[in-house]
Specification:
single chain; 310 residues; alpha+beta; Chondroitinase Ac, Chain A, domain 3; six-stranded antiparallel beta sheet; four-stranded antiparallel beta sheet; 9 helices; 31% strand; elongated
């Protein structure tokens, strides 16, 4: 683990789930060696990361993975707790999350895809299901399967942006002013009603504007890879902070009340300098002319949107 800690910190993680085989801690019954665990704790602490230790006993994934000499561990384990969902079949993402997301059981995703579409779903999971943990498997890129592509920095950008807004995310959860939206091959539009407004996303395309000047264009077709996710927080009536991306999308806000007309008062793109100071770029009319702010493929962005009625 020694060379991994720094790499994990640069990916803007705040927690690492790491495995320990009990046979290495208690090689013979009654004789313990916690050197490995001590080194893991020290490495995580020095990199300012939290550590969750995943203890492996005699059985994993339905098969025995350690020697019979440590089978007694099964007897000593803590009382049974329901397993938390590992989600790799993303076509069933909502089906699984809805069944784990209950008032007495905040959902935690200890394993999911390490690809860019998985990163996009992080925005959705933290907003829509208010998950406590969203953990891509093999993010260090050293595994034989389900491992991250070292050249793909989607999760780095995603977790850096989410980290900027962690206090606001926690506050919005307490006040029940948070949700999430998603575009994938199962949906080409998504929306949520918040107060007197509806926040919606759809794939961004210039084909309609091109058609006005006689240029042929094609609509964006959603697949399983160009997934786009958006975290939505309502700061006030008519004011929203949205953060998300990876896939292509346009963000629109409209009235939830029939006959009411609304428009953008201001749309500010939020970025941060190296010291974490918030910087604001106010979008002009050309930048929202297609219906709202746009996030292009591979980007993650945050906007503060203010609306007015007329």
């Amino acid at each position: 683990m020694a060379p991994i800690w720094k790499r994990m910190a640069t990916k803007h993680l705040n927690t690492v789930i790491a495995a320990v085989s009990w046979e290495l801690i208690e090689p013979t019954e009654g004789h313990f060696d916690f050197t490995l665990v001590d080194e893991m704790i020290r490495g995580a602490r020095e990199s300012h990361l939290r550590l969750v230790i995943l203890w492996f006993g005699s059985w994993k994934n339905g098969g025995r993975t350690t020697s019979t000499s440590v089978r007694h561990l099964e007897i000593r384990c803590a009382p049974y707790r329901p397993a938390l969902p590992d989600i790799y079949s993303t076509d069933l993402f909502d089906w699984v999350m809805e069944r784990y997301d209950t008032a007495d059981n905040p959902v935690m995703v200890p394993e999911t895809k390490s690809s860019s579409d998985g990163a996009a779903r992080a925005f959705y999971a933290f907003g829509r299901y208010q998950t406590l943990c969203y953990s891509p498997f093999g993010i260090d890129g050293a595994g034989l399967m389900n491992s991250a592509d070292p050249s793909d920095h989607a999760y780095d950008k995603t977790y850096q942006l989410l980290g900027r807004f962690t206090p606001l995310i926690i506050q919005s959860r307490r006040e029940r002013r948070i949700s999430g939206l998603l575009l994938d091959n199962n949906r080409v539009e998504d929306h949520v009603k918040m107060g007197r407004y509806v926040v919606a996303i759809r794939p961004s395309s210039t084909w309609q504007a091109q058609a006005l000047v006689g240029v042929k264009g094609e609509e964006v077709k959603m697949t399983g890879t160009n997934v786009a996710g958006l975290l939505v927080m309502q700061e006030d009536e008519g004011q929203f902070l949205v953060a998300g991306g990876i896939g292509n999308m346009i963000v629109n806000v409209y009235s939830s009340e029939s006959g009411k007309h609304v428009a953008f008062e201001s749309v500010d793109e939020l970025t941060f300098d190296k010291d974490g100071k918030e910087m604001i770029h106010r979008l002009n009319g050309d930048e929202t002319t297609l219906g709202g702010p746009v996030i292009r493929d591979g980007e993650v962005k945050a906007f503060r949107i203010k609306m007015y009625e007329y």
